[in-house]
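hey so i finally got around to running the thing on that chain from the lab meeting. sorry it took forever, my laptop kept dying and i had to restart like 3 times. anyway pasting the input first so we r on the same page abt which one it is
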Amino acid sequence: MQRTNEALKNLGFKNLKPIQSEMLEAFENESDLVLIAPTGSGKTLAFLFPLLESFKEGKITQAVIIAPARELALQIEQVFKDAKTGFKVNCCYGGHPIKIEKNNLLDAPTLIVGTPGRIADHIRRGTIDIRNIKSLVLDEFDKGLELGFEKDMRFIIDELFYIENRILVSATQKGDIPEFTRMEDPKILSFIGEKRNEGTLKLYSLKSEGNDKLEELKELIYRVGNQPTIIFCNHREAVERIGELLRKNKIPAGIFHGALKQEHRERELTKLRNGSTNVLITTDLASRGIDIPAIKNVIHYQIPTVEEAFIHRNGRTARMEADGNAFIMLKGDDYIPDFVGNIDEFELANHEPVDLDTKYVTVYIGLGKKNRVNKVDIVGLFYKKGGLIKDQLGKIEVMDYCAFVAVDRLKADDLVDTLRKEKIKKKSFKISVSR
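ok and heres what got predicted. didnt touch it at all, straight out
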């Protein structure tokens, strides 16, 4: 447990959660485990800690974690890095050149995290040495099946001949475990329905007078949009259409769906995390498994067809003892599904408009971790050369090849002009305000 205790300390936690201590104990005694737990329960560390305790010293790949979305894979990688374990981790996912990953894999990481398609691709190419891989984790397994990744997951499992431990992770309790997982009589640890430190969720309906809800949505955002808000749609086209409407009305909002480039998706999530935007329009891709801060309002612009999706969407708010709101938007002959339960009508006229301007905007820097640039370098540059003071600099996120910095919106344009010809660690860089 020494490694786990050290990792806990590095992550800023004092004690293990029950889900984590139970997984550590179960991993010692069982070869196949199924972990069922909701978002926000601590399940990522619940499967990372057992892997950490099992690792042997040496530059050999010993575990693989499969995640259905790039954002989730990157999130898991970052959590492991933040734990400062001393073991190397690499993340593999589509949307960027495979050559970069091949070079990273030459110096074998102890842990590989990635999406099914990209991991399968590396196995086919022989760029992952599978001989010492003893543990496999399938995170958000049910979501992976929904997204059509069964073929790739089946291939990966068939190719990993030396697996001794399998962990299947899901946010929902579903039926039989597919045979291709090769899990025989697994031990199931379920944390669904456990009482957690949650706030109160208030449900509201909002009905439009005609057959288009866009005007009502705009008015609703004018009432609540200065608080972190996610607007859920069933289709990408609706996300794009609503995004365009809000832009025309000068309402700061980001869009997020599976067809967008990875850099765009990372930027929009970063802007929501650092307070540059308070509104994100998305498909169900953002309903779970992605690093999003505490959300005050969930807006169901389009009603999900199944209760499970409704629950996952609402799970983005009313967390960690903070209250939250969920709004269901209706038009024409729309009806409220039976699974919604008690709901109040939201009267727009009873609420005053709010100021939608955010304190910060996001500044893009074209250097990142692979250029040996870190947060300290950026803070020093922005204070010494950019002339900022503490309250004018917000959250900094450094990616592999770029960084996003929250800067006081009244200072951002002047800062960019001032720093255009500066260097970080003797390297020139691109800098711009991310609109």
